[in-house]
Amino acid sequence: MANRIDVEMTVLRTEELAPRMRRVVLGGPAFDEYLDAHLPATDTYVKLVFASNDGQGDVQRTYTVRWVDAEARELAIDFVTHGTEGFAGPWATSAKPGESLRFRGPGGAYRPDPTADHHLFIGDESALPAIGASVAVLEPGAAATAFIEVDGPEHEIDLPTAGDLTIHWLHRDGDAPGSTRLLDEAVRAWEFPQGRVQAFVHGESALLKSVRPYLLDGRVDRKDISVSAYWRCGETEEGFRAWKKQQQDAVIRPGGPR
Known about the structure:
Blueprint: E1 5-18, E2 21-27, H1 31-37, E3 45-51, E4 58-69, E5 74-80, H2 88-94, E6 100-107, E7 118-124, H3 128-135, E8 143-150, E9 164-171, H4 181-189, E10 197-204, H5 211-216, E11 225-231, H6 237-252
Parallel strand pairs: 7-8, 7-10, 8-9, 10-11
Antiparallel strand pairs: 1-2, 1-6, 2-5, 3-4, 3-6, 4-5
């Protein structure tokens, strides 16, 4: 990460965005240090640091910075919560003003290119903060389409934008998250627009083997697609990182898959 920092910021307030999505707004004396390192990318992420339950040191969880308000000296991080499991979700569920949160970073690269003819966003709840940050910077009238998978209508959230954005909310209606079937089928059924399409495809790791090859099959130029697995069904973040490293090693290993 460029301009790597390690700061501790203070919880200012929290907001309930949906039944399992909570926004934590942070500020305090360390805000200026973070602002000096903040990236123009709309998928800017930081590594949140939590103490482990077993006393074996810190654990890190990766989260997108939803927005930064330099004038108010605040930044927001949106958390998908899943009950008492894990570290970040339970912390966000109980976070109160005055508590502190330590994080490292930032990193990130993607930002909508204003010269693209159409902007395409594909993801699940884990990608909502980055999708929200991205559509927020679209130029007035910019053509954009988003396919977003959530549990049901009550999990849809507002995504303010000046762009001409069409959102397709895909509801699991009780199905377990992680299959990416809904996203894959919806994107394949969509009438692809003419012109240059810039695509942002982030979420469960199966998207790399379903939606990504479909888009790269003559629909989106490789330089115009941002693809990232944010999580893997059935894996903790530690297991997910190990899986990602295996995938990277397989790509660069001589004679390995390309």
